[in-house]
Every structure is written in structure tokens, then in C-alpha cells.
Amino acid sequence: MRWPVPGSLRLRFLLAVSLWVLLGIGAIWFSAVRIFSHHVEQSYHEELEVHVRELGGLTEIAPDGRIVLSRPLSDPRYAEPLSGFYWQVTAEGRAPLRSASMTRGRLDESIAHSPEILHRLNSGPTGPAITYGYTRKGPAGEDIHFVISTDQSELDRLINSFTRDLTAWLAALAALLLATGFAIISFGLRPLDRLARAFARLRHGETEELEGRYPAEIAPLAADLNAYIRQNEAMIARARVQAGNLAHCLRTPLAIITDEAERLAQHDDSRAAGAVLLDQAGAMEQQIEYQLARARSGAGRKPSGRGVVLPDVVLPILRAMERLHPGKRFTLVSGSDQRAVLPLDPVDYTEVLSILLDNAGKWARSEVTISIDQPHAGGCTVAIADDGPGIPEAQIPQAFAVGTRFDPEVAGSGLGLAIARDLCDAMGAELTLANGAGGLVARLHYPSTSGE
Ligand SMILES: Nc1ncnc2c1ncn2[C@@H]1O[C@H](COP(=O)(O)OP(=O)(O)OP(=O)(O)O)[C@@H](O)[C@H]1O
Ligand SMILES: [Mg+2]
């Protein structure tokens, strides 16, 4: 089970279920204790009434005038000393008769003042007690008072023991309900987890659309999203092809314009105009080459399923660079044996690495080093260092502009770094240049990776 994080649906459901269970169980506990107490008290009182009636029925006046019982009361607790169950029979002019349990004290007979059975709470020999009593006329017309008393603590003990048992049971029931509630929430939210995983796979380029079957509530969302992705892909591909086509169409007219401008530049009276035209045509050609290169780099291509696997992707480029720049040594230094998988398009990534390695190969004296700073949570950096002249610090920002070339001696169109920066922006990677100990160091940093 995944733990709920603040602001999540899971946490909302968990709080709602917990509140619901606690309220429900609390209400059951309260009502059960109330109903049970009421019934126990009622049956207790009925029992005491029966006992006082039994006492009256068993009481006799002996020939010698003593008060006696024809037999002991049926409840043995009245015979046990200080058991909490007491009785007493009194009559004016006669010695009182008390239960064997009452080894000390006496009962207040004022409750027994009418033939009707009355009861009240007063203090007995062993604490607060429920007392029942009534009177009956004796043989000489005197009042005989019958009193039965039971400690209130007996009743409390019954209710407390019930409440304790009930609390334990209901607590166990609440725990069970909460656990099943949490399980139900997890089960109910599983399709959303699947959707999130499918989305992550899509973002990492492992799939081309949201995969999986979803419940009726989410299925339309997934279908709409897939339709949107397809539409977007088609639109981007179309736009790239159109940009490529446009750039291509402009090439021939531009070649004719350049040709004309060269002829104009050869005549004395139109030399200046010819030079301006040639200059502008050159700038236009650069832009066209740049747009064509950009359009080529991603036109209509589907992202590959594997992502970029480092350092595997580097090795074939190094072989190619060694052939392209004979006499220069290309060395790969890896920070660890671990492989990194970057969720990026391998073709775009390879193109950026090729541009940077080609530059390093062009300007290095003898040595190019490519090092992979291996992935932790912080991402993955590939650094390409050469032992060439580097670029003056102040000119580094300019190097990324279309057509910038600082070194006219070396062949090139000045587009490489501009394209590399564009591709990096689109991939969410960061490209920086700096002068290192030997020459230029180009760093390609991708913020988050997954290790393999
Ligand atoms: N490793 C490097 N060492 C020294 N200067 C460099 C290095 N990389 C690039 N530069 C400078 O930055 C300029 C721009 O580089 P960029 O790759 O954009 O163009 P290019 O290499 O001249 O042409 P292209 O790559 O389009 O064939 C280069 O002309 C060069 O002056
Ligand atoms: Mg270059």
C-alpha cells in the first residue's frame, strides 16, 4: 500500500473513512452503554422488590413476641458478612431482626413508612446503597418495617464490567473497519496508480500512448489524452516537414540571387549594391541551412522505446569521430560502472554529442576526453573536454548564435552549437561551455535519471 501524501485523494479518503468509522463506533458505544445500564438498573430494581416482598412473606412474630423468619431468604448473599446485601425488620416494642451479612451498622427504616413499596438511594453499612422498604401491620396493630438494601457499587460493577468488555470489542471492530477501509481505498485508487505509471512510461518514451484498460470513469480521459497525443504528434511532424520544405524551396531562388549579386559585384557602378546583396544572401543561406538541419533532426520521428543508455550511446560516436579527425585521440572516462537510462530521444541526444565532439575534435591539439558523471538522484552530466585554445570567456554566450564562427581558419558553418542548444532546450537538458585547464569543456546535464 502506498502512503498518502499531503493533498492526495488517498489522504482525503483515509481521513473521511477514519472519521466515519470513529463516529459510527462512538455512537454505537454510547447507545449500547446507555441501553444496557437502563436495563440492568431496571432488572436490579425488580429483583430487590422481589426480595423485600419475600422478606415480608417470611417474617413471623413468635409466641414469645420476637420477630423471626420462617426460613432464610433464598439469596445466600444476605448471609455472607458485609456482602453488600442486607435486610432488616423492625417493629415498635420488639427487638429488631437483621440479616447475618449486616455485622455492623443499621438500615434507615424511614423509607418503610407505607404499605406501598418505596425506594431511594441512601448510605448503607458499606457505602451508598439502594434501599427498598414498606410496612405491614403486626398482630397488635403495630407497624412492622421491612427494609432491604444493596450497595450501589454492585450495580456500578456490573455496568463497568460490561462497558470495559464493550470498549475492547468495539476498539477491535474499529481497527478492523479502518484496515478494511484502507484496503478498499487502495483497491479503488489502483486504476489511478496504473494511469500514473502509464503516463510516466509515456513521458519516458517507453510507450507511444497511454496503455491499459481503465474503469468507465477514467477510460474517456485516457482515450481523450491518447487522441490529443496523436493529434499533437501529427501537428509537430507536419510543421517540421513544412519548415523543411519551405527552407528547401528557398534554396534555388537564393542560389540565383547570389549568382546575380556576384555578377553585380564585378561591375564598378554596382559593386556596393552587389556586396550588400551577397552579404544578405549569405545570412539567408545560413538561416536556411539551420532550419533544414533542425527539421531533419526530428521530422516525423517517433520516440524510440529504449531511451538513451549511457555509456553505450557514446561508443559508436567516438569511433566515427576518430575516423573524422585522424590524429586526435578520443578517450571515454566513466565515473562508475553503473549504466544510466535517460528518458530522451537517442537520435537527438546523439546529434548533440556529435556536434560537441566534432567541435572538440576540430580544435583539440591531440586529445579529447569525454567523461560521464554517473547518475544519482541529481541527474547525469556528460563533459567533453579538449586540449585546444578554448573560447575567450566573454565570447562564450555568442558561440550559441546561428552563424557564429570565431576561427575562420577552420571549416564550418557556425550552426553546430545553435542546433545543439535548441535540441537541449527541447529535451529539457542543459548545455554549458567553459574554459577548463586544457581547452574548452562542454557540459551536457540532464536533471533526473533512473539507474539500471
Ligand atoms: N572546442 C572548441 N574549442 C575552441 N573553439 C570552439 C570549440 N567549439 C566551438 N568553438 C568556437 O565556436 C564557434 C561555433 O561553433 P559551432 O559548432 O556552432 O560552429 P562550427 O563548428 O564553426 O560549424 P559547424 O559546427 O556548424 O560545422 C566555432 O566556430 C569556434 O570558433
Ligand atoms: Mg561545430
In short:
This protein has 452 residues and is an alpha+beta fold. The protein is built from seven helices and 15 strands.
Structure overview:
With 452 residues, the chain is an alpha+beta fold. The protein is built from 7 helices and 15 strands. The strands form 4 sheets. A 5-stranded antiparallel beta sheet has the order 4-3-7-6-5. The chain is rod-shaped, with a radius of gyration of 49 Å. The model has no long low-confidence stretch (mean pLDDT 89). Adenosine-5'-triphosphate (ATP) binds next to helix 6 and helix 7.
User: What is the general shape?
Assistant: rod-shaped
* Residue fraction in strands: 15-25%
| Class of secondary structure makeup | alpha+beta
Query: What is the helix tally?
Result: 7
In oligomeric terms, what are we looking at? single chain
Q: Helix amount, in percent?
A: 40-55%
| Secondary-structure element string | HEEEEEEEHHHEHEEHEEHEEE
Largest sheet, strands/sense/barrel:
5 strands, antiparallel
Radius of gyration: 49 Å
Distance between the termini: 24 Å
Number of domains: 3
Overall mean pLDDT: 89
Ligand inventory reads: adenosine-5'-triphosphate, magnesium ion
What's the total count of β strands? 15
* Strand arrangement across the biggest beta sheet: 4-3-7-6-5
Question: Which consecutive residue ranges, at least 5 long each, have pLDDT under 50?
Answer: none
